[in-house]
Amino acid sequence: MELVVKYPVYDLDNQLLVREGTELTSDFMDDFCREKRRKHPFARLFEYGDVQKDLLNEFLIPPYDVIFSREETRTRVLGLLADVALPMPVFRMMDYFRNNDFHTYRHMLIISALTTLILDDLAPRKGNSAKECTHFGPLHDLGKYTVPLPILMKETPLTAREQDRLKHHAVAGYVLVSHYLGDHGGLSSLIALDHHERRNGTGYSRGIELLNLVVEVTTVCDIYDALVARRPYRPVSFDNRTALEELTSMARRGEIGWAPVRALVAYNRKKKTSVEEVAVSLERRGSPPRQNVYGMLSEEE
Ligand SMILES: [Fe+2]
Ligand SMILES: [Fe+2]
Fold this sequence. Notes:
Layout: E1 9-10, E2 16-18, H1 26-36, E3 42-44, H2 51-58, H3 64-67, H4 71-81, E4 85-87, H5 88-100, H6 102-122, H7 130-133, H8 136-140, H9 149-152, H10 160-167, H11 169-181, H12 187-194, H13 213-228, H14 240-252, H15 258-268
Antiparallel strand pairs: 1-2, 3-4
Helix pairs in contact: 1-11, 2-6, 4-6, 5-6, 6-13, 11-12, 12-13, 13-14, 14-15
Bound molecules: fe (ii) ion (2 copies).
């Protein structure tokens, strides 16, 4: 399927990277990465600013206080994340979010921790080690840097046009991550592009069938955090049980895989069950919040 840039993508210094209407063929991306490749210095995630402190704060907020309640879990995840190093422009973008859209910033951090935890449990059996996957969290939503703040911060449901602009963060993220890493074929770029795809092809941007476990783990964590965390437009979030039931329903519909859902259910048990042994109830007992606007659009144009 052709992948077209609908809105121009600029870098941190306001240089145009890709103009609107450009088709991102693999030849184009090869040239783009070759041409734009510049060596950026790298820094370690936990040595930058307040990143580590900010992540530890997120571990105190429900439902993450339960998921990360054991010291062994925190030590394991923090140990893996301690090795993450990213190009400096990524940190400048994280600073931008920390100052302007704190939710996106904290989302990047908690997704880093949650994907690392799940992949450490699942990936060794499937080929990828969690160590190789720890840096995807901060990168997956980098494209939101290109979405106007009034849209990211809007307190009422988005219009169809605004939602289109927001959804474009996946394609824009693919461009930005490829640009800053100088590579468009790696998992980092793929996660930026495909983390809103679904197993049955009903997602975006490409509408492909999501089959890569690492991307899928990011996708499932992303949906989970979108449901349980507060957003400017959604002051009332899903309670944890309803969020897990929502993920279970999505797995039943074939939109996402069972393995990451099962892992999230296991981590949420007070009496910790292993990811292999956990049974997922198919019964729905919770209900979405009364002012639920998750996934809803405004009628206005
Ligand atoms: Fe996203
Ligand atoms: Fe996300």
